[in-house]
Amino acid sequence: MTAATPAPFVRRDASRGVHWLREAYARLSAQRLPWLLLLMLYYLLLGLVDLVPVVGGVVAPLLKPVFAVGFLAAAWTQERGGTPELRLLFRGFTANVPALLAIGVVFVGGVGLALLATALVDGGKTLDLLSGKLKPDEAAFATGEVQLAMLFAAVCATPVVLAIWFAPALVVFQGFGPVRALATSLRCCLANWRAVSVYGLMLFFYGGVVPGIVTGLVAMVAPRDLAFTVALLVLMPYFFLFVATLHISDYVSYRDLFHADEPADAAGAPPDAPPGDQAG
After folding, report:
1. N or C: which terminus of the chain has fewer CB atoms within 10 Å of its end residue's CB?
2. How far apart are CA 119 and CA 122, in angstroms?
3. Does 276 map to a domain?
4. C-alpha pair distances (Å), 265 with each of 68, 77, 226
5. Rg (Cα) of the chain, in Å, rounded?
6. Mean pLDDT of all residues in 126-134
7. For 59-95, how does the pLDDT look when each residue is reduced to its tens digit (9 = 90+)?
C-alpha cells in the first residue's frame, strides 16, 4: 500500500459528467459478460449476507465499500488490458478493511438519517412503506406527499453520497484514512459541481425517466394486475447494464479527476496485487 500523500484533483467542466458515463459504458461493452458476472456475484453475496439472522441487514450495506474496491480493481485491470475476473471482487478484503468498514458506517448512518428525515415531510408514510407496514404498491408511491418526502431524503443524503463516492478509491489507491478520504471526496465533488450535476442528471434520466416511460408503455398494453411484473421483467436486463455502468464510472471519474495526467500502463494485465500497490 502506498503511503498517504496529498491528492490534488483537477476541476472539469460540465461535459465530463457525460464523458464518465459514456466511457464507462464503452468499457462495459468491450467486456460485457465478465462485468455482468461480477455484478451478479456481488448481488448474490450481498443477498446471502442479508439473509443472516439479526445482523445480516446491517452488515450487508457496511460491506459495500469493501466490495467497491473489487469493482475498482476490475476497472483498473481492464484499463491495462486484463479481464474483470470474479476473484477481483474480493480484493477489498486484502486492503484496509477497517477504513473501508468505517466508510460503510458513514454510508449506513447518513442514509438512515436521511430516511428518518422523511417523517418531517409525510408524517412517517415513507418509513412505513419501506418497513412493510404499508403495502408498497404503485398508488402508495405515487402520492405527492411520499414523492416530496423521497426528494427531501435524496437532498439530505447528497453530502453523504458525495463524500462516499471517491472514498474507497482514495483508501486503496492512496493510503488515506477514512476521515481524510471522505473529506477529500466531498471537496472534489463540490469543486466539480458542474460535472457532478450533469452526471446526476444523466443518472436520473437513465435510471428514472427511461424506466418510467417503459413502465408507462407496458401499462398501456398489459393487464393492470400484471403490468408492474411485466415491466420489471422487460427492464431487468437494462437495469443490470445500467448498474454495471455506474460501478465502472466510479473508477472512470476517479481516474479522470485524481490521475488526469497519468497514462495507463497498457503492457498487459497487472500483477496479482492490490491496486493500491501499483497505482501512482
Report:
1. C
2. 5
3. no
4. 22, 10, 51
5. 19
6. 71
7. 999 999 999 999 999 999 999 999 999 999 999 999 8
- Which domain covers residue 114, as residue numbers? 16-261
DSSP labels, 91-147 = GGGGS-HHHHHHHHHHHHHHHHHHHHTTHHHHTTHHHHHHHTSS---HHHHTSHHHH
Tell me how many domains the chain contains: 1
Residues 6 and 181: beta-carbon distance below 8 Å: no
Q: Which residue has the cell 439473509?
A: 51
Q: Is residue 205 situated within a structural domain?
A: yes
SS3 267: coil
Q: Would residue 180 count as lying in a domain?
A: yes
Contact present, 128 and 101 (Cβ < 8 Å): no
Which element (helix H / strand E) includes 13?
A: none
Q: How far are the Cα atoms of 88, 117, 122, 141 from residue 144, in angstroms, in the given order?
A: 43, 16, 9, 8
Query: Are the C-beta atoms of 3 and 175 separated by less than 8 Å?
Result: yes
Q: What's the CA gap between 245 and 178, in Å, rounded?
A: 25
Rounded Cα distance between 219 and 211, Å, is: 12
Domain membership flag for residue 182: yes
